[in-house]
Design goal:
single chain, 72 residues, mainly alpha
């Protein structure tokens, strides 16, 4: 996934997190197309979470693909 696209997606997730909004799947154009894209977004999201705190933080974005969404 292109760096800026992954960053935009991570920023969208961070905005939802800060607003304490209920998690929703990312829609176009931020939605990851592959598992690799989902990991890129997750890496950037964790990086953004760590910035203000400087410590460990993270969330698993997961279930990016329909096959994973069906898994319970």
């Amino acid at each position: 996934m292109e760096y800026t696209a992954a960053t935009r997606a991570a920023q969208a997730l961070l905005a939802e997190h800060k607003a304490r909004a209920r998690f929703t799947s990312l829609g176009p154009p931020e939605a990851p197309a592959t598992i690799s894209d989902a990991y890129d977004i997750q890496e950037k999201h964790v990086s953004l979470l760590r910035m203000p705190q400087g410590g460990g933080a993270g969330h698993n974005v997961g279930r990016a693909l329909p096959a994973r969404q069906a898994f319970r």
